[in-house]
Design goal:
InterPro entries: YycH/YycI_2. The protein has about 475 residues and is α+β, with helices and mostly antiparallel strands. The chain folds into 3 domains: about 10-220, no CATH class; about 230-390, TATA-Binding Protein, CATH 3.30.310.160; about 400-465. It has helices at about 10-25, 80-95, 110, 125-130, 185, 200-205, 245-250, 305-315, 355-360, 400-415, and strands at about 60-65, 70, 100-105, 115-125, 145-150, 160-165, 170-175, 200, 215-220, 225, 230-235, 235-240, 240, 265, 270-275, 280-285, 290-295, 325-335, 340-345, 350-355, 370-375, 375-385, 385-390, 395, 425-435, 440-445, 450-455, 465. Strands 14, 15, 16, 17, 18, 19, 20, 21, 22, 25, 26 and 27 form a 12-stranded mixed sheet that branches. It starts with 7 loop residues before the first helix and ends with a strand.
Length: about 475
């Protein structure tokens, strides 16, 4: 007998949540807030330390305490008033020497029961490093986390809370203060102002342990949902040919004194620009830009802080003037002497996921890689394209996440092994960019360590419905 259905209680729980939520969706909507920390521009060629103390999360959710959420990706490498205000509240909570510290098992129904902002990371963050600037804080139980939830007080003098949650263990540390000066004003900002895509929380709506982390999943009151696909625009091309002018205008930002006399074009058609300390290459067939610095980096120890390196990376991105699509932090990899920050593109508050074939072509699983060593950018690797929405909404979504989950489970049984699924690591909706050029929605579902890309239109067959 084929195990085409995930354990019944999970499906039933999700269906109940979906049905219950569908009625609410007629009255609820999403807002158009965007979030980003403020960074000062640092020259790419100096060791100037970046300002700020926020590690921008992969995505953000805003809830009013009514069971629905709005989810956002960063809008730019720049500023966002709302996230800056969230950071101010968080800083006030953590800076209070008399704040209350509790170690509790995360209860998402309680955590998300009121107005809040949830910062979600797709990787684990070291709690000690993140909280290192707050010397008085006591945290010896939660060593890493992937969620920060800020619950601001409604009135001055009332309690404001900040939860740091490790979704793998469901352990959390909660910091509470009643001395936040900005929480009540921030509370009023956490509202939804209408929109086409609303999210529910699996942690709040179900108790299914098979979904091991709290997920924010889109839910529609009525299907089909019509949307615009994306168009890919190569940053250095005009009429299908490389524009040397556009390329050189961008590369100026990577050199102290740029001169076209330092450039060559090899037999493969690749462009190389260099001086005594820097080499920049552009590979037209892959549309890949690579920057490499030969500056001295001191010792081989990794002495760049996690937040510091992230802010240096964001500052460096400002030098790439050809980058016009929003990006978000997708992952961090720490090595003995350097840290690599991975970024991906986002459009309309949804990620642009690169297909396996496209990843192989560009030599990376992510659109952008920035390698930091001793407060300096050593290497920069980017898939040099931008994405813009098409004008017409002629693409259709008519598959809810529950059906996509069931399809992924079916594919798992057929391609991996027959077993009852007990670990749904992630479910997300995003744009799918492959080598064909047509870019529309797909569901991305991770069962154990296997990623399944499934259709969002049940009338369309695609060979991507399988293990990746």
């Amino acid at each position: 007998m084929k195990l085409y259905k995930i354990t019944n209680f999970v499906i039933v729980a999700l269906v109940i949540a979906a049905v219950f939520q569908t009625g609410e969706l007629w009255l609820e909507g999403t807002s158009s807030h965007n979030f980003f920390s403020i960074f000062t521009k640092a020259n790419a060629h100096t060791s100037k330390e970046a300002d700020g103390n926020v590690l921008l999360a992969t995505r953000y959710a805003v809830g009013e305490g009514k069971g629905t959420f709005s989810v956002y990706y960063p809008d730019q490498t720049g500023t966002s008033a709302l996230l800056q205000e969230a950071n101010d509240v968080l800083n006030e909570i953590l800076s209070d020497r008399n704040n209350k510290v509790e170690f509790v098992t995360a209860d998402w129904k309680e955590i998300l029961g009121g107005r809040c902002i949830v910062m979600q990371y797709d990787f684990m963050v070291s709690a000690d490093e993140y909280l290192s600037q707050y010397k008085k804080l006591k945290n010896n139980k939660v060593t890493s986390f992937d969620y920060i939830t800020i619950i601001p007080s409604r009135r001055p003098g009332e309690e404001s809370k900040a939860y740091f949650v490790n979704s793998k263990t469901n352990d959390s540390v909660c910091f509470t203060t009643n001395k936040s000066q900005s929480a009540s004003a921030f509370y009023e900002k956490l509202v939804n102002d209408g929109g086409a895509m609303t999210y529910i929380s699996t942690g709040q709506k179900t108790g299914a342990s098979v979904i091991w982390r709290n997920l924010f999943l889109p839910q529609w009151a009525d299907l089909p949902y019509h949307y615009s696909g994306l168009r890919q625009i190569p940053a250095f091309e005009k009429d299908g040919m490389v524009s040397r002018v556009d390329m050189e205008n961008t590369l100026k930002g990577f050199f102290r004194n740029f001169s076209v006399d330092w450039s060559t074009k090899d037999d493969s058609g690749d462009f190389i620009f260099s001086d005594s300390q820097t080499v920049v290459k552009y590979f037209p067939d892959k549309r890949v830009l690579e920057y490499y610095s030969y500056e001295a980096y001191g010792n081989d120890e990794n002495n760049t802080g996690l937040l510091e390196g992230y802010q240096i990376s964001c500052n460096f991105l400002e030098n790439d003037t050809s980058l016009s699509t929003n990006v978000f932090l997708a992952d961090i990899e720490k090595k003995s002497n350097e840290t690599i920050y991975y970024f991906d593109y986002a459009v309309n508050n949804l990620p642009v996921e690169l297909s396996a074939a496209l990843q192989d072509k560009i030599g990376s699983k992510h659109a952008i890689e920035i390698t930091i060593r001793n407060q300096r950018v050593k290497k920069y690797h980017r898939y040099v394209v931008n994405y813009v929405p098409l004008e017409s909404k002629d693409m259709t979504l008519n598959v809810q996440f529950i059906d996509a989950l069931d399809e992924a489970n079916k594919n798992y049984q057929e391609t991996v092994e027959e077993k009852v699924i007990t670990d749904v690591k992630n479910i997300s909706l995003g744009y799918y960019a492959d080598l064909t050029g047509e870019i529309g929605f797909k569901w991305f579902i991770t069962l154990y360590d296997y990623l399944f890309v499934t259709e969002t239109n049940k009338d369309t067959f695609s060979p991507t419905n399988g293990v990746s």
